[in-house]
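Supplementary Note 3. Input sequence used for the single-chain structure prediction.
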Amino acid sequence: MQEQHKKQPEISIIVPVYKTERFLSACISSILAQTFTDFELILVDDG
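The predicted structure, written as discrete structure tokens, is reproduced below.
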């Protein structure tokens, strides 16, 4: 049986989101609009 391995993203983008309500949507949209797509986006409520 052949094992299937999930490919890990090349980079991780970590965004602190405590008290960022005004800017969070624009921040996420900007990250998702990039041409580089091999990443994981991690949002951390650091409050």
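The mean pLDDT is 92. The CA atoms of residues 7 and 41 lie 15 Å apart.
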